[in-house]
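Action item from last meeting closed. Structure (117 res):
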């Protein structure tokens, strides 16, 4: 299975929707697309929607951690939403939830960043 990456700008927030599998085969594509969008655009925050992400391995954790460092170095925040139970467990075991915020859906994620009017 492959991965589809959908990017949307909402005010100064980049919404990244991942569909499919985020693993060592697809991690570089996610890294490049997210970095280009963050560095090229007027982006303060990132919402990472995993609603249709069916699988993720440690390569995916590395991609997320790297983009988290990039956005926080610019003074922004990253929020993860719509995480399925298997990916949630991977986040818990890795300790990423100690630094990343998690919300149930995109609307709540955007609200938590005070982006929704």
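Sequence:
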């Amino acid at each position: 299975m492959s991965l589809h990456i959908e990017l949307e700008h909402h005010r100064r927030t980049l919404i990244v929707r991942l569909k499919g599998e985020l693993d060592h085969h697809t991690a570089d594509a996610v890294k490049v697309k997210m970095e280009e969008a963050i560095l090229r655009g007027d982006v303060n925050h990132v919402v990472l929607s995993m609603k249709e992400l069916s699988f993720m391995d440690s390569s995916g954790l590395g991609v997320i951690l790297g983009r988290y460092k990039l956005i926080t170095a610019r003074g922004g925040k990253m929020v993860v939403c719509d995480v399925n139970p298997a990916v949630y467990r991977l986040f818990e075991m890795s300790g990423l939830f100690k630094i990343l915020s998690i919300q149930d859906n995109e609307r709540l994620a955007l609200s938590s960043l005070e982006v929704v009017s």
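Note appended to the action item: The first strand starts at residue 3 and ends at 10.
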